[in-house]
């Protein structure tokens, strides 16, 4: 009997794989535990359609991230900070601050966890910060921290 595995079954196969098993094993173990479905033509057609939809969704996401990376490349973000006598800031600029500023500039949400900042910025100056969107998509932006007027 042919079944489509819905989850990985050790010693049998991976999720999405069609395998031949004994009818009793399928009826008494795999099917009741929802580990597999009978591999009918309709089920296989549905699985192929779902995989195609996932692939389309993935391509759209990749395209959107590439466009976002192009818009972010070379962006300059300015912050005004209060400083003390020794030129140290009273507060700091965090990855959340940078993500919020980028969101206002490009009009799309930027996750703060994607902003690669080793530690918060606590001094005036110009910094190069990498935004890691996905794999090879890592635009660099310039963060400028000036004295508050």
Task: Please describe what this structure looks like.
The mean pLDDT is 91. With 149 residues, the protein is of the alpha+beta class. A hairpin with an 8-residue loop joins β8 and β9. The strands form three sheets. A four-stranded mixed β-sheet has the order 4-9-8-6, with helices on one face. A three-stranded antiparallel β-sheet has the order 2-1-3, with no helix packed on it. It contains three helices and nine strands; from the N terminus they run ββαβαββαββββ.
Strand order of the largest sheet: 4-9-8-6
What string gives the helices and strands in order?
Answer: EEHEHEEHEEEE
Oligomer: single chain
How many domains comprise the coordinates? Answer: 2
How many E strands? 9
Estimated radius of gyration: 26 Å
Q: CATH homologous superfamily of the largest domain?
A: Ribosomal protein L9, C-terminal domain
CATH architecture of the largest domain: Roll
Q: Find the CATH topology of the largest domain.
A: Ribosomal Protein L9, domain 2
- Helix count from the secondary structure assignment: 3
Which whole number gives the mean pLDDT?
91
N-C termini distance: 77 Å
Short structural summary:
The protein has 149 residues and is α+β, with helices and mostly antiparallel strands.
């Amino acid at each position: 009997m042919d079944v489509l595995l819905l989850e990985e079954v050790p010693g049998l196969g991976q999720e999405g794989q069609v395998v031949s098993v004994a009818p009793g094993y399928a009826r008494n173990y795999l099917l009741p535990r929802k580990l597999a479905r009978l591999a009918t033509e309709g089920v296989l057609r549905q699985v192929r359609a779902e995989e195609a939809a996932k692939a389309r969704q993935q391509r759209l996401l990749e395209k959107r991230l590439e466009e976002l990376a192009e818009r972010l490349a070379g962006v300059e973000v300015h912050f005004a900070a209060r400083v003390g006598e020794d030129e140290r800031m009273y507060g700091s600029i965090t990855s959340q601050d940078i993500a919020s500023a980028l969101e206002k500039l490009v009009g799309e949400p930027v996750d703060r966890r994607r902003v690669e900042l080793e530690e918060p910025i606590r001094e005036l100056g110009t910094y190069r910060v990498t935004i890691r969107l996905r794999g090879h998509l890592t635009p660099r932006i310039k963060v400028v921290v000036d004295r508050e007027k």
